[in-house]
Structures are given as structure tokens and as C-alpha cells.
Amino acid sequence: MDSKGFNETMKFSAVGKESDSEAKRILVLVYTALAEKGYNPVNQIVGYILSGDPTYITSHNNARSLIRRLERDELLEELVDNYIKNNM
């Protein structure tokens, strides 16, 4: 890629709003399952998003299967969107 390509802004296609509510629902369920098992939910979810390794998520209450229904970029988008909406 030439140097011009690194100076251009890439556009990321956002997922649909119906997916956002599903991502939020799944994150809440996964967070709860992790907390119930005594894990630090934030650390575990971050580990999963960064690595893609589903073993960061407990299988308790089907949390591992639930989180794998979504792409990691959908989860990250939901987290960033929620953070911005609540901190601006």
C-alpha cells in the first residue's frame, strides 16, 4: 500500500440497530454469568474480544454459546457506542 493509503480515513460499516439490541442483551447475560461464577466479567470479556478465544467465557448459563452468536466487532461496537452515549 502506498503512503497515500495510510492518510485516508477508512469507513467502518456499522451493524444494524436490531443487532445492537441483541448484542446488548447477550453482553448483559454473559456479564451476569461470569459474575455468578466469580470471574471479573470485564477482564474476561476483554480477553475474549482481543483474542477470539471462547474459553475466556464461562459455559455457565450458556454464556459461551451466546457470545459466539455475535462477531467480536459487533460486541466492540456495542461497548463503544454505549460508552460514548453515557459519557458525552
List its salient traits.
mainly alpha
Please provide a brief summary of the model.
By secondary structure, the chain is mainly α. The chain has 5 helices and no strands.
**Number of helical stretches of at least 4 residues:** 5
What order do the helices and strands follow? HHHHH
Helix content: 55-70%
DSSP, total strands: 0
Strand content: under 5%
Distance from N terminus to C terminus (CA atoms, Å) equals 36 Å
Radius of gyration: 15 Å
Structure description:
It contains five helices and no strands. It is mainly alpha-helical and 88 residues long. Helix 2 (17-36) packs across helix 5. The radius of gyration is 15 Å and the shape is globular.
Q: Mind sketching the topology for me?
A:
Layout: H1 3-7, H2 17-36, H3 41-51, H4 63-67, H5 72-87
